[in-house]
Amino acid sequence: MSVLEERIRKSRIEHGISSSELARAVGVTSAAVSRWENGLVKNLKMEHLFTIAQLLNLNPEWLATGRGRESAQPDNTVGIHEETTPAYLPTLTEDEQLWLNIYRKLSPSCRKNLQNAVSEWTSGKG
C-alpha cells in the first residue's frame, strides 16, 4: 500500500471500526478522518498518527511510511502482553486491560468526565 490515506482506511475497515468511531477515539471530528482518508491532509499530526497506530495495533512506521512490519506486535493481538511489557511496568490483569481498552475509545471530554467521576468516587464523596 503506497499512501497514508489508503493504510488508514484499510486498517480501520479491517478492524471493523467506523470513521466516526475512529474520530471519537482519536479526539477529532468525523470530517477530519474523512480528510485523512481522502488524502486532503498532507501532514497528519504525529499525536494523531501514533494514536491511530495504537488503536489499530499498527506499527507507527508502517502507518506513516508503508515500510516495516504492519502489526505493532508480533502476534497481531491488541493489548499489553507480558512478553512485550517493559520490566518496569506491571502486567495488566484482564479487568485492567478491559478498562484500558474502553478508556482509549473515549473522546478527550468523556475521558475527563470519567476521571472526575472516579476521583469523586474514590475520595468518598460519591
Give a structural overview.
The chain is globular and about 55 Å long. It is built from seven helices and no strands. It starts with a helix and ends with a helix. It has two domains: 75 residues, 434 Repressor (Amino-terminal Domain), CATH 1.10.260.40; 48 residues, no CATH class. It is mainly alpha-helical and 126 residues long.
> What helical percentage do the residues reach?
55-70%
Q: Look at the structure and name the CATH superfamily of the largest domain.
A: lambda repressor-like DNA-binding domains
CATH architectural name of the largest domain: Orthogonal Bundle
CATH class of the largest domain: Mainly Alpha
Arithmetic mean pLDDT: 82
Number of strands: 0
Examine the coordinates and then state which fold CATH places here, giving the name of the CATH topology of the largest domain.
Answer: 434 Repressor (Amino-terminal Domain)
Strand content: under 5%
Structural class by sheet pairing and helices: mainly alpha
Domain count:
2
Question: Poorly predicted ranges (pLDDT <50, ≥5 residues)?
Answer: 75-83
Q: How would a crystallographer describe the biggest sheet? A: none
Briefly summarize what is shown:
By secondary structure, the protein is an all-alpha fold.
Question: Which characteristics define this entry?
Answer:
single chain, mainly alpha, 434 Repressor (Amino-terminal Domain), 7 helices
Please write out the topology.
Elements: H1 4-14, H2 19-26, H3 30-37, H4 46-55, H5 60-65, H6 94-105, H7 108-122
Helix pairs in contact: 2-3
